[in-house]
TrEMBL record:
The gene is rplF. Belongs to the universal ribosomal protein uL6 family. It comes from the Bacteria. Part of the 50S ribosomal subunit. NCBIfam families: L6_bact. One of its GO terms (biological process) is cytoplasmic translation. This protein binds to the 23S rRNA, and is important in its secondary structure. It is located near the subunit interface in the base of the L7/L12 stalk, and near the tRNA binding site of the peptidyltransferase center. This is Large ribosomal subunit protein uL6. GO terms for molecular function: rRNA binding; structural constituent of ribosome.
Length: 178
């Protein structure tokens, strides 16, 4: 029995959810998201809740049950509240700026890095903190990981791009023999 899958998802006000065959359609304002369950789970939309049930009792069906419930819940949260990741830039001369749909990063290379932002992602920069916002949890996390990947924090001084909540454990440097 999937502990995640058996929990119903409550539909907040202002969000329209409909079921077209095996495809769940979420609408809020002009945003529309779809979740195709590919006939792996049974889905019901009733009484302001989305209820998922397993098609079978085998291991794969139970895995799909919890997975699709989590994906649907992430869409509901994304359309109502949105997702946010914050990156911190540490280092002398390291900075970030936004120009339209491009994030411009100066990270100690001989050239600036121009990162083209995907559709539906907003970025704001305040001092050394880059905030990435969007309605799709996977895309927000992917953008944050790619930006962090340009200059990951190094283990001696902690310079580079890191998540705000990330803790870098610094190594001790070389010691001289005398």
């Amino acid at each position: 029995m999937s502990r995640i899958g058996k929990q119903p998802i409550s539909i907040p006000n202002g969000l329209d959810v409909s079921l077209n065959g095996d495809v769940l359609v979420f609408k809020k304002g002009n945003l529309t998201k779809e979740l195709d369950t590919k006939n792996n789970v049974n889905v019901e939309v009733k009484d302001g809740h989305i209820v998922f049930t397993s098609k079978g009792d085998d291991r794969q069906s139970r895995a799909y049950w919890g997975t699709y419930r989590s994906l649907a819940n992430n869409i509901v949260i994304g359309l109502t509240a949105g997702f946010t990741k914050q990156l911190e830039i540490n280092g002398v001369g390291y900075k970030a700026a936004t120009k339209g749909k491009v994030l411009e990063l100066a990270l100690g290379f001989s050239h600036p890095i121009n990162y083209e932002l995907p559709e539906g992602i907003e970025v704001s920069v305040e001092k050394n903190v880059v905030t990435i916002k969007g309605s799709d949890k996977q895309v927000v996390g992917q953008v944050a990981a790619e930006v962090r990947g340009f200059r990951p924090p190094e283990p001696y001084k902690g310079k580079g791009v890191k998540y705000v909540e990330e803790r870098i454990i610094c190594k001790a440097g070389k010691t001289s023999k005398k």
